[in-house]
Amino acid sequence: MVTRFDPFRDVDRLAERLFTAASDVGQAARAMPMDLYRSGDHYVLHVDLPGVDPGSVDVGVDGRVLTVRAQRSPRGEDLEWLTQERPVGSFARQLTLGSGLDLDRIEATYEDGVLTVTLPVAEQARPRRIEVAHRAGRQAVAGSAAGSVGSVGSAEQQAVEG
Fold this sequence. Notes:
Layout: H1 9-31, E1 34-39, E2 42-48, E3 58-62, E4 65-72, E5 89-96, E6 107-111, E7 114-120, H2 155-161
Antiparallel strand pairs: 1-2, 2-7, 3-4, 4-5, 6-7
């Protein structure tokens, strides 16, 4: 019995597995394309779900992972398809959420085939302005000579004092 040695066989198998996994992720992205942007103090996620069963749309948060699930049922089985490009079945997308979001106030609506998820920014993560306290002026260090580096003052302060 003669065995043929192919050094690339294992590499081919590995590449096939990787491409299959990548195409599964790509299929989910094609079945559920999304947009995500920030608007003021919240993020907005739009997921296109045309033709899905409205009752099958499910949005959930587990820890810091947001999961969107939906199902598109196949059309009648007695059809003779000429072309069928829209995927059918169950689809899911997951997003890892950052720590600056208020997970208890997430809202979702489904209208005209578009799922909209609003993710509010947590109060402690919102940008805020910090007020800077102003003092009337710095006093000269005791014992320093006039005009030396130790005396500090602006023309405005000198006009007020003098």
